[in-house]
Structures are given as structure tokens and as C-alpha cells.
Amino acid sequence: MSSMSPSEQNKKDKPQKAEIINDNQQPKRKCGKILRRLQKELMGLIKEPPPGVSVDTESISQNLSEWKINIAGFEGTLYEGESFQLLFKFNNKYPFDSPEVTFIGSNIPVHPHVYSNGHICLSILTEDWSPALSVQSVCLSIASMLSSCREKKRPPDNTLYVKTCNKNPKKTKWWYHDDNV
């Protein structure tokens, strides 16, 4: 038999309004919205992927905050027949903060806006990010960037950048000066 009064039992059964979910002191409610958004985007990508895009579902089953996305070079472009892999990392501010997106693996595209360490110089990944954008729109933008390339070459400052950059490309202050690639 319980020694608690009915009012004490009610207090015990009610969930706390701001339960802590991690060291950053974020309420569960906020985390739940992020997870729902990520799950919705993931299901959309799996069910109806854009042309040349596929999700590495095995990698995502381990961690919903890191996605590996496969992207194929479009027919009739310099990257036709090639395949690449992107790593998307989501923080607890997504979709209000852009994901960290890099090329990974042994086949990093040789492109004027892609560094040999996989970092991508693309404005929607930093200052032009909007919560209205999605993983799908980022994939389409990257595919478009690759498709419009006229010459396979690395950025002119590749060697210096790779030696001195931060591990997180979002911490780079990019200088967007060449839209003609």
C-alpha cells in the first residue's frame, strides 16, 4: 500500500515541463521537433529521392544526426559515371542552423568549389541557409554545382586551405566570388 497522498501521487505522475535531454540543457520538446523534421526529410528522401541521390540507410540507423548520402554525376556532365558520398551532420539547432555537409570517402570530386578534404564552398551551407531548405534541396544544389562545372580543377587556394582550415567547414568565413563555375 502506498503511503503517498493522492495529491503527491498526481505530482509524481505528471511529467516535468522542461525535462533535460543533454548537457546543453535543451528541452525534450525542441528535440522532438528536430527529430520529427529529420525523420520526415529522411522518409521523403528514401521514398522519392531526386535523380542520382540515394540514402545510405545503414549509416542512419546508427545515428539520426549523421546521414551519408550517395550522389551520382549526371549524364552528359564532367562527372558522368562517377559517384560521391556526402556526410550531413545535424546539430540541435536544425533547421534554423544549416547542417555541416562535406564530401567523404576516396572519391572527392575535383571541382573549383570543392577542397580536397571534402569541404564545399556553397553559400546555402552557411550564410544563405534558410529553414525552408532541406537535405533534398542541398543535394540538388550540389548536383547542380557539379553539373555546371566546365573544368575539373581544385580551388586555387586548396593546399593552404587544407593545411590551415578548421575541421568544421561551417567555421570557415567563405568568400563567394565565382558563380561562373
UniProtKB/TrEMBL annotation:
**Domain UBC core, chain residue ranges per copy:** 33-181
Name of this chain's protein: N-terminal E2 ubiquitin-conjugating enzyme
- Asked whether the UniProt record includes Glycosyltransferase among its keywords, one would answer no
For this protein, the record's PROSITE patterns field holds: UBC_2 (PS50127)
Q: Which UniProt keywords apply?
A: Transferase, Ubl conjugation pathway
Taxonomy of the source species:
Eukaryota, Metazoa, Ecdysozoa, Arthropoda, Hexapoda
Task: Give the residue ranges for region: Disordered.
Answer: 1-28
Q: Where are the transmembrane segments?
A: none
What this protein catalyses is: S-ubiquitinyl-[E1 ubiquitin-activating enzyme]-L-cysteine + [acceptor protein]-N-terminal-amino acid = [E1 ubiquitin-activating enzyme]-L-cysteine + N-terminal-ubiquitinyl-[acceptor protein]; S-ubiquitinyl-[E1 ubiquitin-activating enzyme]-L-cysteine + [E2 ubiquitin-conjugating enzyme]-L-cysteine = [E1 ubiquitin-activating enzyme]-L-cysteine + S-ubiquitinyl-[E2 ubiquitin-conjugating enzyme]-L-cysteine
What Enzyme Commission number does this protein have? 2.3.2.23, 2.3.2.25
Name one molecular function that GO assigns to this entry.
Answer: ubiquitin conjugating enzyme activity
SUPFAM superfamilies hit by this protein: UBC-like
A GO BP term, please?
protein ubiquitination
